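Long-time lurker. I teach an intro course on protein structure, and each term I like to show students one example going from raw sequence to a predicted 3D structure in token notation. This year I'd like something fresh instead of my usual example. Would anyone be willing to generate the tokens for the chain below so I can use it in lecture? Attribution to the forum is fine with me.
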Amino acid sequence: MSADFQNWAGNCQARIETFLDSRLPATDCVPIRLHKAMRYSVLGGGKRVRPLLSFAAGELAGADVGRVTVAAAAVELIHAYSLVHDDLPCMDDDILRRGKPTCHIEFDEATALLTGDSLQTLAFELLAENRLSDSAETQLTMIAQLALASGSRGMAGGQAFDLDSVGKTLALPELEFMHIHKTGALIRAAVMLGARCSSRLNEAQLGKLDHFAKCVGLAFQVVDDLLDTEATTATLGKTAGKDAENNKPTYVSILGIGQARELAEKLQYDADRALDDFGETAFRLRQVTEFIIKRKF
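-- Reply from a regular --
Happy to contribute to a lecture. Here you go:
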């Protein structure tokens, strides 16, 4: 990636880290163990892909960066909570996340469960107590969109489908359905919340952004499946080969490495085409898309 993108992404990542650090409860605030676990699970790790998408969509829409920061932080808190819960023994039973022990290993299972619960509610607290739009109706739409993306018709539902699919052979449309919910829903929310921090886009433009985000969400998962097959644990910061070990259906297991890579490139092409009408204002979104497709970890 270009130095320009690296500088922009670094600034966005630093901004979101600083904001999250300021809004997560301090470790001297009771209950101390829970607050330590919350900060452990959120700060100092991850590529912050979802916040980058929020910031890029906000730039496209001409949104105030302070408002976008709040929206991006809320999405990232939901993502962090999902990782804590996904790693639990009752789910994926993993011991490594972002290059360090998972929350339930570092603390304990009960604390990890409460950590996820607390991160989720903090996300909605941020959306409710900060002005993100000049329109109260739009702000309610944003809160509802993140709730929908997080629940049984979004990320949680996708995870339920994922757990139910272990050991089964899925058709490609079934796998796509699962990941539109498990991975894609929150990525779509990241884009749409960033864009809705501005009132400049009409419904047709928002629809094109949503289609872009749907393509990017699926592409993200295809690349994730490729990395799980090809990268090492040290590179990924999480246990490599876990999906194959658990006999989970993936884009690689269904399509093979070559066709899975072709699918990721096609999804990138489709995402780019969805942005054609936005011209140069979509520059950052295109860069983030390339970063997602080309990432090595």
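Some talking points for your students: Residues 3-294 form a domain with the Farnesyl Diphosphate Synthase fold (CATH 1.10.600.10). Residues 16 and 22 are 10 Å apart (CA to CA).
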